Amino acid sequence: MSISYLGLTGGIAAGKSTISELLRRAGWFVIDCDAIARELTAPGEQTWQKLVDAFGGGILNEDQSIDRKKLGSIVFGCSQSRKTLNELTHPAILERWHKEVIHFRVRNPNGKIAVSVPLLHEAALEGEFERVLCVGCSYATQLRRLLARGLEREEAEARIDSQWPTARKAERSDVLLWNDGSLELLEQQFSHFALACEAS
Predict the structure, then answer these.
(1) CA pair distance 113, 107, nearest whole angstrom
(2) Which reaction does it catalyse (predicted)?
(3) How far apart are CA 186 and CA 155, in angstroms?
């Protein structure tokens, strides 16, 4: 079956950005919910104000932008704070992504769209898509990659543990690409997936 509306998910540091880039190269229009979140939480935006009201001015940098490390230390260490963050951001992200889909469809009715949603399964958004693609890797690989990004071990583990385990995400997805090895191996898996998407 030919696929034109795809959900992309996976754990933190699993490789969603890499797969997004491969999708773009293959001709897909990619909507990145993390990028939307950054836009919606820019200084002065309505969602930015909601976060400041909820978590206080201590989450801000000198230029009034949100210090994501400070905010992360709050929400990844407390399930209630994480729930508050999601309640304040998810509806606005969903609204923006739907608008982007509509705008793209007007310009390109037959184009292929992929939406990268880190918490796709946690938010029960499977029904939005024709198929869901999960990119996964081992816990050890996630941890190593996050440590390489400069996080402390405790911070990294809290971020991984705040999401569903990869096995649970994979169980609810239609396709799993495994990203524990080289980029070349991931690209080979993606090529097989892309060919299957074109099949009718």
Answers:
(1) 12
(2) 3'-dephospho-CoA + ATP = ADP + CoA + H(+)
(3) 27
Give CA–CA dist 52/32, Å, rounded.
23
CATH 3.30.450.20 for domain 1-28+112-200, yes or no, is: no
Binding-site residues sit at 13-18
As a whole number of Å, the end-to-end CA separation of the chain is: 5
Range list of H helices, 108-151: 139-148
Residue 35 is inside which H or E element, if any?
helix 33-40
Strand runs labelled E in the chain: 5-10, 29-32, 113-116, 131-136, 175-178
CB < 8 Å & 24+ apart, contacts of 81-86: 81/55, 82/162, 84/54, 85/51, 85/54, 86/119, 86/123
Beta-bridge mates of residue 179: none
Domain positions in the chain: 1-28+112-200
pLDDT at 196 over 70: yes
Q: Which residues contribute to the annotated binding site for ATP?
A: 13-18
**What mean pLDDT value characterizes the chain?**
94
